[in-house]
Fold serine O-acetyltransferase.
Amino acid sequence: MLSPIDLANDGGEAWVWIQIKAEARRDAETEPALASYLDPNLRSATVADLIAARYRDPACVSFSHCLLNYKGFLACQAHRVAHKLWTESRMPLALALQSRISDVFAVDIHPAAEIGKGILFDHATGVVVGETAVIGNNVSILHHVTLGGTGKAGGDRHPKIGDGVLIGAGATILGNVKIGKGAKIGAGSVVLIDVPPKTTVVGNPARLVGGKDQPRRHDEVPGESMDHTSFISEWSDYVI
Amino acid sequence: MLSPIDLANDGGEAWVWIQIKAEARRDAETEPALASYLDPNLRSATVADLIAARYRDPACVSFSHCLLNYKGFLACQAHRVAHKLWTESRMPLALALQSRISDVFAVDIHPAAEIGKGILFDHATGVVVGETAVIGNNVSILHHVTLGGTGKAGGDRHPKIGDGVLIGAGATILGNVKIGKGAKIGAGSVVLIDVPPKTTVVGNPARLVGGKDQPRRHDEVPGESMDHTSFISEWSDYVI
Amino acid sequence: MLSPIDLANDGGEAWVWIQIKAEARRDAETEPALASYLDPNLRSATVADLIAARYRDPACVSFSHCLLNYKGFLACQAHRVAHKLWTESRMPLALALQSRISDVFAVDIHPAAEIGKGILFDHATGVVVGETAVIGNNVSILHHVTLGGTGKAGGDRHPKIGDGVLIGAGATILGNVKIGKGAKIGAGSVVLIDVPPKTTVVGNPARLVGGKDQPRRHDEVPGESMDHTSFISEWSDYVI
Amino acid sequence: MLSPIDLANDGGEAWVWIQIKAEARRDAETEPALASYLDPNLRSATVADLIAARYRDPACVSFSHCLLNYKGFLACQAHRVAHKLWTESRMPLALALQSRISDVFAVDIHPAAEIGKGILFDHATGVVVGETAVIGNNVSILHHVTLGGTGKAGGDRHPKIGDGVLIGAGATILGNVKIGKGAKIGAGSVVLIDVPPKTTVVGNPARLVGGKDQPRRHDEVPGESMDHTSFISEWSDYVI
Amino acid sequence: MLSPIDLANDGGEAWVWIQIKAEARRDAETEPALASYLDPNLRSATVADLIAARYRDPACVSFSHCLLNYKGFLACQAHRVAHKLWTESRMPLALALQSRISDVFAVDIHPAAEIGKGILFDHATGVVVGETAVIGNNVSILHHVTLGGTGKAGGDRHPKIGDGVLIGAGATILGNVKIGKGAKIGAGSVVLIDVPPKTTVVGNPARLVGGKDQPRRHDEVPGESMDHTSFISEWSDYVI
Amino acid sequence: MLSPIDLANDGGEAWVWIQIKAEARRDAETEPALASYLDPNLRSATVADLIAARYRDPACVSFSHCLLNYKGFLACQAHRVAHKLWTESRMPLALALQSRISDVFAVDIHPAAEIGKGILFDHATGVVVGETAVIGNNVSILHHVTLGGTGKAGGDRHPKIGDGVLIGAGATILGNVKIGKGAKIGAGSVVLIDVPPKTTVVGNPARLVGGKDQPRRHDEVPGESMDHTSFISEWSDYVI
């Protein structure tokens, strides 16, 4: 058997690394506060978020840059832990964690909010997501976006965001409204009513591009394509 | 007489707590920098703010949660101290405190701004309130709201917000305009002119709901009811 | 020759200060990480930014207040260092610095973005400036402004802001569009197309004040005059 | 019934404070991580520590000063929570908390160490207390004191400190030795063997004052009297 | 007259710097909390401390390095401000500042302690200076030095250190004892009685080098020469 | 080929991790400030330090605990980077890093000091290591240890510590003295002269155990065995 000193003289770097990983796993198994690191659902969500940032944000040059530096990514992972605490009825800790995330990242997501996988919070500053909001998979949300409530009554009062939705910078969606799969919410829009799947809304107050009766539909998945520009030509007739 | 050790053996918790409160009061009386803790106006404003958060924000589950965690509440209390310094002509300290509040909470309130009692800054990230702004009592202000100036001239150049007003997320109100008592400013609105009491404005640029000549008036106090939705039906005809 | 003790007894304050400045210069000359402090371009840009804040923001009562407290000023100077690292192909450090600036100031400027001299970031919270954005000289940008990209393709995809432009609070400018010299972008505007020089756009979606065919032109330099109000009369006909 | 607004107008400060205390108790009852705040043993220990600081340290002018500012007091209370985690077999959290206390206060107490009530850590910087150390009640420990182990074997290897002991600044006690009740350990002493009750040791290596066979005994409780000087006359014969 | 923009184009760096200095002076004159920056006594003490560090510590390569990095220098200057608050009877602020200095630098100096000019706190970690301690001019104090009290009675109970004294690392001086001008206190000494001027004490308990009756006297000023070694030969006969 | 989305759906965790490691390596290769992460000497020293902590400190229950929490380990690794900067003549950065390490960990190691592999800084608070100190391999150093200089002259003036030495808590070694291989320095010792290999010194001033002429020699390697107690019996005759 190798002695510790032999290992040290030989380097032993690989062996130490193996020990560290085994210890971390053991700690996570025995300490409830660390258990989320072993939750396969959380792990796969984190991986999907990393891939989302890497492939949707052209300024994201590497996974490691995202892992170290992206406040949207980091705030989302911290929310996933806060949400787990919330579902285990540990409200005081969950709320304290929300508050800390809000102070550090200026991203305010209620711990009860449900968030899917493959989420990109791009830039992220100023994002607010309310208590009964639900966000599907492969959604991209720019900075200053609000998924807010309406009124001071409790109950189900925040938006439901379908899979593949793209929400532009500064958009405000209020109330228990349904944003259909693959919809696109233009930057700065204020949205208070349901938006059909695969359609686009723009403006404040928001208008459905193409009109209420025959809205234009797109085939792409905007949450993945990140195409904020397709509606420029549609606007150009009457905007400037 | 009880000796300290007897007290310690008996617990003595209540007695120690009484001493601590008496000491804190004595310190506050002798040290000018702590005097604001004894100012009855500041104290009642703080209590009113706590009650406002607790009863208007359905996600606020307890006073203690607000006291510990709500950055809007904490930033507002810190502003009240900065404002007191400002009124005592201690501008450098007041401005340094404003800057610190802005760094920590991303809430930027000029120390000269006058703020009433029972104020709810909900979520609070990104709020900007200018030097000559005045905010009445029982006002609710969502995140990303700007009460801004116009131009580089000094003088009275920021909004005056009446009692009971509700200002939705991301609204921008610019210039020395008067927002009447009980008015409601829709999320994302850009407002540059006076708004009559008990009326609602929405959109960018903002429109008076019901029209300039016969604006619809509501009876509620929106700053207390927090009802962001009443105008949805009014919008639905022409928005989407 | 004076001994150190003589100097200490005499005060020697001026002499020590001279030594400190000489040492700082010597350190900056030999240590690459400090070299930017000697770059004449960076120094003159910093001075111009200070003067911009002092003369355009009526709440800015002194240079020293700005130097110590203005997060917009401090974030801009930190960006200038990050940008220098970027141009020297030290991307990991530049991106890490961007991330740190975003965490501390809630101002997110890609290190590749080119920023001129005499820039005022007023209030600054929530500003986002993308990778291929270019900002000219004597520009004033309020808080919550986005100079964003469109889509997930790389390449030149962010706005180009001409000299003397004023961008109001919460405005969102997306894509590789050109904002002409001296243009004025109203608060809360969402702009996706080029804006001619010396004209004004307002609203979401943005409209050219005066209309596409005969836009009204102003003579002032809005980035310097900071006049957000000139278009109120123009709005008043149809807004409220 | 009073409405919230009535309360706000009336002040309602007392009523809000009652709510806050009730909420804090409820949170502490339901959230395991907060449970230590309700543990009567921890509470009475904290009270006894406050009283110890107030009455033994002549520079401690008030309980509130101690509660807010004394790093020895704060580090000790944090240790009490870490120790509770340790006894519940939550080692990773307990060790992480120890490390955090060491970084913040430069006080390094292993979470397994058992500490009695009425403890004064005066100045506190640099205190090190090992894993199997036991500290009785009414003990006073100055800064830079080490209760250390000997060797790299595990097992019971740290000092056991009796009730009422006083340990002077910079004293080092090593190994599983017993410091008898009411003993006094001179500043800077290095102690490796048992010390009888009510005796004094000084020097490096430590000598028993009065000699091994007829050590001088005192009647006071040095941990409470804080008398570091009684042995000066004893030293004066042979020291200087 | 030059316009601001001309200045910006011309650089204007020198002019801006002059304004900044004038503003800082004006702020310091009007704001009591900043007044110490103008106190000529504080300023000359700070300069003397800088010179002391530069010329006595061979590892101190520049004034600027000391000004930016030396925790002993920074803690001492912060103490000077705390001491000024104390002399103005603003005890709560002074004590809070002491506590903050202790947390940040691990240097714990009671705000009532009087400290002369030209002081070098070398390395500084763990220094403790009590309430009634007095330190003369041109004194050098190494890390882990304690100037402590004895007992729990108030009153004058801490050491008085004469001009030009050198106190070695880890020395502990307890009680209202007088350390004569130019004395040298060996590292790790524990001193409880007066030390005559220009003599040396070493050991724990401390012995006067040369003996009580004919102590050896040196001519140098050890606080300035920093000579820790002169007594090695004196020790070598009987030490190892 | 797998698409990113497929990977995300499949988990793709292993693949992402491979990318992250490759990116980190690429960044470290191109960015000079990160190059030390690839230096094989630094890596093997770090591994040896980890193994030293794990096997010599009975309170160290895992490598991961050490890696995350041990301030001695972390301060030593940070020093290794500062030392590399120093050897590359980047003094200002190296000194700034030293200062930061001293503030955060209360461990003050001059960046010029040379430190071998397999070093344990146990507890670590208050350690001071001077500019020209040299520490061999497999050395264990407890808290509050000083390897200090003597006098204000520059040049080679700090201790040289041989392989396998153990230095007890609070020991102070001053001057350019040589501590032989495998020597043991008792806690609280003050050492000013060379110590022969495999011998023990204790006390202040330090005495060679067994006497100058026939010092007792041990066979163990104290830096690895961590045996602080072997000399108790030797002391017991004359100490207490």
Remarks:
- Chain F has eight helices and 15 strands.
- Helices of chain F lie at 4-10, 13-30, 40-56, 63-69, 71-87, 91-105, 222-225, 232-236.
- Chain F touches chain D at residues 55-59, 61, 65, 68-71, 104-106, 123, 125-126, 142-144, 168-170, 186-189, 202-204, 224-229, 232, 235-236, 239-240 (CB under 8 Å).
- Confidence is low (pLDDT under 50) at residues 233-240 of chain F.
